[in-house]
Specification:
By secondary structure, this protein is an alpha+beta fold. It has 6 helices and 13 strands.
Protein backbone atom coordinates (compact mmCIF):
# COMPACT_ATOMS: atom_id res chain seq x y z
CA UNK A 1 0.00 0.00 0.00
CA UNK A 2 0.96 3.63 -0.46
CA UNK A 3 2.24 5.46 2.62
CA UNK A 4 -0.46 7.91 3.64
CA UNK A 5 0.18 11.43 2.36
CA UNK A 6 3.73 10.86 1.13
CA UNK A 7 5.03 11.47 -2.38
CA UNK A 8 6.97 8.32 -3.34
CA UNK A 9 10.57 8.62 -4.53
CA UNK A 10 9.94 6.11 -7.32
CA UNK A 11 6.83 5.21 -9.28
CA UNK A 12 4.81 2.96 -6.99
CA UNK A 13 2.77 -0.11 -7.78
CA UNK A 14 -0.78 0.45 -6.54
CA UNK A 15 -3.20 -2.24 -5.41
CA UNK A 16 -6.73 -1.84 -6.76
CA UNK A 17 -9.61 -4.10 -5.73
CA UNK A 18 -11.59 -5.37 -8.73
CA UNK A 19 -13.78 -7.93 -6.96
CA UNK A 20 -14.31 -7.30 -3.25
CA UNK A 21 -15.55 -9.73 -0.59
CA UNK A 22 -18.60 -7.48 -0.15
CA UNK A 23 -19.60 -8.34 -3.74
CA UNK A 24 -20.24 -11.91 -2.56
CA UNK A 25 -19.07 -13.17 -5.95
CA UNK A 26 -18.39 -16.88 -6.31
CA UNK A 27 -17.01 -17.15 -9.86
CA UNK A 28 -15.26 -15.20 -12.59
CA UNK A 29 -13.96 -15.81 -16.12
CA UNK A 30 -10.57 -14.42 -17.11
CA UNK A 31 -9.20 -14.23 -20.65
CA UNK A 32 -5.54 -13.42 -21.21
CA UNK A 33 -2.56 -13.63 -23.56
CA UNK A 34 -2.33 -13.51 -27.33
CA UNK A 35 -4.06 -16.89 -27.52
CA UNK A 36 -7.08 -15.47 -25.65
CA UNK A 37 -6.92 -18.40 -23.27
CA UNK A 38 -9.88 -18.50 -20.88
CA UNK A 39 -9.88 -19.77 -17.34
CA UNK A 40 -12.70 -20.19 -14.84
CA UNK A 41 -12.09 -19.37 -11.20
CA UNK A 42 -14.56 -20.34 -8.52
CA UNK A 43 -14.75 -20.09 -4.75
CA UNK A 44 -16.66 -22.03 -2.15
CA UNK A 45 -16.72 -21.80 1.63
CA UNK A 46 -13.24 -23.28 1.99
CA UNK A 47 -11.37 -23.40 -1.31
CA UNK A 48 -10.41 -21.60 -4.52
CA UNK A 49 -10.67 -23.53 -7.81
CA UNK A 50 -8.90 -22.88 -11.12
CA UNK A 51 -10.65 -24.76 -13.93
CA UNK A 52 -11.98 -27.15 -11.28
CA UNK A 53 -8.61 -27.75 -9.60
CA UNK A 54 -8.14 -26.55 -6.00
CA UNK A 55 -5.63 -23.73 -5.42
CA UNK A 56 -4.63 -21.62 -2.42
CA UNK A 57 -3.95 -18.26 -4.07
CA UNK A 58 -3.64 -17.50 -7.79
CA UNK A 59 -1.19 -14.99 -9.33
CA UNK A 60 -1.36 -14.04 -13.01
CA UNK A 61 1.42 -11.93 -14.56
CA UNK A 62 2.88 -10.58 -17.80
CA UNK A 63 -0.30 -10.07 -19.76
CA UNK A 64 -3.48 -8.08 -20.11
CA UNK A 65 -6.54 -9.64 -18.54
CA UNK A 66 -10.21 -9.45 -19.45
CA UNK A 67 -12.45 -10.17 -16.47
CA UNK A 68 -16.18 -10.93 -16.48
CA UNK A 69 -18.27 -10.14 -14.55
CA UNK A 70 -17.09 -7.10 -12.60
CA UNK A 71 -19.49 -5.13 -10.42
CA UNK A 72 -19.77 -1.40 -11.19
CA UNK A 73 -21.70 1.27 -9.29
CA UNK A 74 -21.80 -0.59 -5.97
CA UNK A 75 -24.85 0.63 -4.08
CA UNK A 76 -25.82 3.26 -6.66
CA UNK A 77 -28.94 3.25 -8.82
CA UNK A 78 -26.84 2.48 -11.91
CA UNK A 79 -25.24 -0.64 -10.40
CA UNK A 80 -24.55 -3.27 -13.07
CA UNK A 81 -22.17 -6.02 -14.18
CA UNK A 82 -19.50 -5.12 -16.75
CA UNK A 83 -16.47 -6.65 -18.47
CA UNK A 84 -13.11 -4.92 -18.03
CA UNK A 85 -9.59 -5.37 -19.42
CA UNK A 86 -6.61 -4.42 -17.25
CA UNK A 87 -2.82 -4.65 -17.34
CA UNK A 88 -0.36 -5.30 -14.53
CA UNK A 89 -0.74 -8.39 -12.34
CA UNK A 90 -3.71 -10.15 -10.79
CA UNK A 91 -3.84 -11.67 -7.32
CA UNK A 92 -6.87 -13.84 -6.58
CA UNK A 93 -7.83 -15.31 -3.23
CA UNK A 94 -10.88 -15.96 -1.07
CA UNK A 95 -12.25 -14.13 1.94
CA UNK A 96 -15.10 -15.75 3.88
CA UNK A 97 -15.85 -18.00 0.92
CA UNK A 98 -16.04 -15.19 -1.66
CA UNK A 99 -13.64 -14.09 -4.40
CA UNK A 100 -11.20 -11.26 -3.76
CA UNK A 101 -9.42 -10.06 -6.93
CA UNK A 102 -6.64 -7.45 -6.74
CA UNK A 103 -4.92 -5.67 -9.63
CA UNK A 104 -1.32 -4.62 -8.90
CA UNK A 105 -0.33 -1.98 -11.46
CA UNK A 106 2.12 0.89 -11.88
CA UNK A 107 0.58 4.21 -10.85
CA UNK A 108 1.13 5.93 -14.23
CA UNK A 109 -0.42 2.95 -16.07
CA UNK A 110 -3.42 3.10 -13.76
CA UNK A 111 -4.14 6.84 -14.11
CA UNK A 112 -5.05 7.01 -17.85
CA UNK A 113 -7.60 4.29 -17.16
CA UNK A 114 -9.09 6.38 -14.36
CA UNK A 115 -9.29 9.51 -16.52
CA UNK A 116 -11.12 7.66 -19.31
CA UNK A 117 -13.41 5.89 -16.84
CA UNK A 118 -14.38 9.08 -15.03
CA UNK A 119 -14.87 11.05 -18.27
CA UNK A 120 -14.78 10.52 -22.02
CA UNK A 121 -11.38 9.88 -23.57
CA UNK A 122 -12.39 12.34 -26.29
CA UNK A 123 -12.51 15.29 -23.88
CA UNK A 124 -10.12 18.19 -24.56
CA UNK A 125 -6.55 17.34 -23.47
CA UNK A 126 -6.60 20.01 -20.73
CA UNK A 127 -9.67 18.31 -19.19
CA UNK A 128 -7.92 14.95 -19.13
CA UNK A 129 -4.71 16.43 -17.74
CA UNK A 130 -6.60 18.15 -14.90
CA UNK A 131 -8.50 14.97 -14.13
CA UNK A 132 -5.25 12.97 -14.06
CA UNK A 133 -3.60 15.39 -11.61
CA UNK A 134 -6.67 15.28 -9.35
CA UNK A 135 -6.81 11.47 -9.45
CA UNK A 136 -3.09 11.17 -8.70
CA UNK A 137 -3.33 13.65 -5.81
CA UNK A 138 -6.35 11.92 -4.27
CA UNK A 139 -4.69 8.52 -4.36
CA UNK A 140 -1.36 9.74 -2.94
CA UNK A 141 -3.05 11.78 -0.21
CA UNK A 142 -4.71 8.52 0.83
CA UNK A 143 -6.76 10.35 3.44
CA UNK A 144 -9.85 8.17 3.56
CA UNK A 145 -8.21 4.73 3.44
CA UNK A 146 -11.58 3.17 2.66
CA UNK A 147 -10.23 -0.32 2.04
CA UNK A 148 -7.12 -0.33 4.24
CA UNK A 149 -8.46 -3.38 6.08
CA UNK A 150 -8.14 -5.29 2.78
CA UNK A 151 -4.64 -3.96 2.02
CA UNK A 152 -5.90 -1.91 -0.94
CA UNK A 153 -5.03 1.58 -2.11
CA UNK A 154 -8.46 1.90 -3.73
CA UNK A 155 -11.23 -0.12 -5.31
CA UNK A 156 -12.32 0.03 -8.95
CA UNK A 157 -15.55 1.87 -8.33
CA UNK A 158 -17.30 5.14 -7.50
CA UNK A 159 -16.67 4.93 -3.76
CA UNK A 160 -12.98 5.54 -4.61
CA UNK A 161 -12.51 6.47 -8.26
CA UNK A 162 -13.62 4.70 -11.40
CA UNK A 163 -11.17 2.27 -12.94
CA UNK A 164 -12.68 0.35 -15.83
CA UNK A 165 -9.49 -0.67 -17.53
CA UNK A 166 -7.69 -0.24 -20.83
CA UNK A 167 -10.37 -0.16 -23.60
CA UNK A 168 -11.35 3.48 -23.10
CA UNK A 169 -7.80 4.84 -23.19
CA UNK A 170 -7.08 7.35 -25.98
CA UNK A 171 -3.93 9.07 -27.19
CA UNK A 172 -5.18 12.20 -25.43
CA UNK A 173 -5.35 10.34 -22.11
CA UNK A 174 -1.87 8.86 -22.52
CA UNK A 175 -0.48 12.30 -23.38
CA UNK A 176 -2.24 13.83 -20.36
CA UNK A 177 -0.60 11.29 -18.05
CA UNK A 178 2.83 11.89 -19.59
CA UNK A 179 2.56 15.68 -19.46
CA UNK A 180 1.46 15.62 -15.83
CA UNK A 181 3.65 12.73 -14.68
CA UNK A 182 4.49 13.08 -11.00
CA UNK A 183 2.49 16.30 -10.60
CA UNK A 184 0.16 16.65 -7.62
CA UNK A 185 -1.86 19.39 -5.98
CA UNK A 186 -0.26 20.71 -2.77
CA UNK A 187 -1.55 22.77 0.16
CA UNK A 188 0.66 23.81 3.08
CA UNK A 189 3.33 21.30 1.97
CA UNK A 190 0.90 18.38 1.93
CA UNK A 191 -0.65 16.51 -0.98
CA UNK A 192 -4.25 17.66 -1.43
CA UNK A 193 -6.99 15.16 -0.81
CA UNK A 194 -8.40 16.20 -4.19
CA UNK A 195 -11.91 14.77 -4.03
CA UNK A 196 -13.86 15.56 -7.16
CA UNK A 197 -17.20 15.16 -8.89
CA UNK A 198 -17.91 13.93 -12.41
CA UNK A 199 -20.50 16.65 -12.92
CA UNK A 200 -20.90 19.56 -10.52
CA UNK A 201 -24.15 20.95 -11.94
CA UNK A 202 -22.61 24.40 -12.24
CA UNK A 203 -21.39 24.77 -8.65
CA UNK A 204 -19.16 22.58 -6.51
CA UNK A 205 -20.16 21.62 -2.98
CA UNK A 206 -18.19 22.66 0.08
CA UNK A 207 -16.32 19.62 1.38
CA UNK A 208 -17.57 20.12 4.95
CA UNK A 209 -21.16 19.59 3.73
CA UNK A 210 -20.26 16.21 2.26
CA UNK A 211 -17.71 15.01 4.80
CA UNK A 212 -18.67 16.86 8.03
CA UNK A 213 -15.73 15.41 9.96
CA UNK A 214 -13.19 17.01 7.60
CA UNK A 215 -13.19 20.77 6.98
CA UNK A 216 -10.39 21.11 4.41
CA UNK A 217 -9.66 24.72 3.45
CA UNK A 218 -9.28 23.94 -0.25
CA UNK A 219 -12.53 21.98 -0.64
CA UNK A 220 -14.68 25.08 -1.01
CA UNK A 221 -17.76 25.78 -3.09
CA UNK A 222 -17.13 27.66 -6.33
CA UNK A 223 -19.24 28.40 -9.38
CA UNK A 224 -18.23 26.85 -12.68
CA UNK A 225 -18.15 30.17 -14.53
CA UNK A 226 -21.00 32.53 -15.35
CA UNK A 227 -22.86 31.04 -17.08
CA UNK A 228 -21.67 27.61 -15.96
CA UNK A 229 -19.35 25.84 -18.39
CA UNK A 230 -21.30 22.63 -17.96
CA UNK A 231 -24.54 24.40 -18.92
CA UNK A 232 -26.24 24.22 -22.33
CA UNK A 233 -24.87 27.64 -23.33
CA UNK A 234 -21.48 25.96 -23.81
CA UNK A 235 -22.27 22.28 -24.39
CA UNK A 236 -25.48 21.34 -26.15
CA UNK A 237 -27.38 18.20 -25.23
CA UNK A 238 -26.55 16.78 -28.65
CA UNK A 239 -22.80 17.02 -27.92
CA UNK A 240 -22.92 16.07 -24.25
CA UNK A 241 -22.11 12.40 -24.89
CA UNK A 242 -18.68 13.37 -26.25
CA UNK A 243 -17.70 14.62 -22.81
CA UNK A 244 -19.43 12.11 -20.58
CA UNK A 245 -18.64 8.96 -22.54
CA UNK A 246 -19.84 5.76 -20.88
CA UNK A 247 -20.17 7.53 -17.54
CA UNK A 248 -23.73 8.47 -18.51
CA UNK A 249 -25.02 5.80 -20.86
CA UNK A 250 -28.55 7.19 -21.23
CA UNK A 251 -27.65 10.89 -20.77
CA UNK A 252 -29.88 10.99 -17.71
CA UNK A 253 -27.45 11.42 -14.80
CA UNK A 254 -26.17 14.86 -15.79
CA UNK A 255 -29.30 16.84 -16.65
CA UNK A 256 -32.55 15.65 -15.19
CA UNK A 257 -35.92 16.65 -13.75
CA UNK A 258 -37.72 15.18 -10.78
CA UNK A 259 -41.15 15.61 -9.27
CA UNK A 260 -42.07 15.31 -5.60
CA UNK A 261 -45.58 15.16 -4.21
CA UNK A 262 -46.75 17.82 -1.75
CA UNK A 263 -47.39 15.13 0.89
CA UNK A 264 -43.87 13.69 0.46
CA UNK A 265 -42.22 17.08 0.87
CA UNK A 266 -44.27 17.94 3.97
CA UNK A 267 -43.52 14.57 5.53
CA UNK A 268 -39.81 15.01 4.86
CA UNK A 269 -39.67 18.59 6.21
CA UNK A 270 -41.64 17.69 9.33
CA UNK A 271 -39.34 14.77 10.13
CA UNK A 272 -36.11 16.66 9.50
CA UNK A 273 -37.10 19.84 11.37
CA UNK A 274 -39.54 18.43 13.96
CA UNK A 275 -42.38 20.53 12.59
CA UNK A 276 -46.09 19.97 12.12
CA UNK A 277 -46.60 21.67 8.77
CA UNK A 278 -49.60 20.97 6.58
CA UNK A 279 -48.66 22.42 3.19
CA UNK A 280 -45.87 24.11 1.21
CA UNK A 281 -47.26 27.36 -0.19
CA UNK A 282 -44.08 28.64 -1.82
CA UNK A 283 -40.40 27.93 -2.37
CA UNK A 284 -37.57 30.47 -2.57
CA UNK A 285 -34.06 29.49 -3.61
CA UNK A 286 -31.73 31.18 -1.11
CA UNK A 287 -28.49 29.45 -2.08
CA UNK A 288 -27.15 26.49 -4.00
CA UNK A 289 -25.22 23.58 -2.58
Amino acid sequence: MLVKGQIPENEPIVSIGLVLPVDEQKSIEIEFGETKEKIQIRANEKNLFLNGNPEENIYLTDSSFTLNPIRAGRGFHWEKQITITVGGELEIKTVDGYLFVINHILLEKYLPCVATSEMSGECPPAFLESQTVAARSWLLAAAEQKHADLGLDACNDDCCQRYQGIPGITDYAILAAKKSAGKVLMYENEVCDARYSKSCGGVTEAGVNVWPQEDLDYLVSIQDGEPAYCGPDFISDSNLYKYLGSVDEYRSYFRWNDEILQEEMIDHINKIHSLNGEAVIGIENEKRG
